[in-house]
Specification:
By secondary structure, the protein is mainly beta. The chain has two domains: about 1-50, no CATH class; about 50-105, no CATH class. Helices cover about 0% and strands about 45% of the residues. It has no helices and eight strands. The strands form four sheets. A two-stranded antiparallel ribbon has the order 1-2. Strands 3-4 form a two-stranded antiparallel ribbon. A two-stranded antiparallel ribbon has the order 5-6. The protein is elongated and about 80 Å long.
Length: about 110
């Protein structure tokens, strides 16, 4: 984590450079002063969440690990199985198949 903290008489700034997954946490800003008043919050919290791209996405056909953009030709009536695999990523990637622009519903 690469963090810079600066402050002036009216505000304090926390800069997190090149956010990483380990930076995901709750951050708290606490104000300390001599006279506490009910209408002035002394603590503010914020939750930082991070997004991470998947390590890779692969389409394979019948166990073949290739990632070609072309299949076939196949004879009419032939069964084929296509698998789409995504690893890593946060949140966990959701995989959706399309036929042109139409979503293919899961059974």
């Amino acid at each position: 984590m690469s963090v810079e903290y600066t402050e002036t008489s009216t505000y304090a700034s926390l800069i997190i450079k090149s956010v990483e997954i380990d930076d995901e946490a709750s951050y708290k800003c606490e104000i300390t002063y001599l006279e506490v008043r009910e209408n002035c919050d002394v603590v503010q919290m914020i939750k930082l969440s991070t997004l991470v791209r998947p390590n890779y996405v692969k389409i394979s056909q019948d166990g073949d690990r290739g990632n070609s953009s072309w299949l076939g030709p196949y004879n009419e009536g032939t069964n084929i199985e296509l698998k789409c695999e995504a690893r890593g990523g946060r949140p966990i990637p959701k995989i959706t198949w399309y036929n042109n622009s139409n979503i293919i519903k899961c059974k």
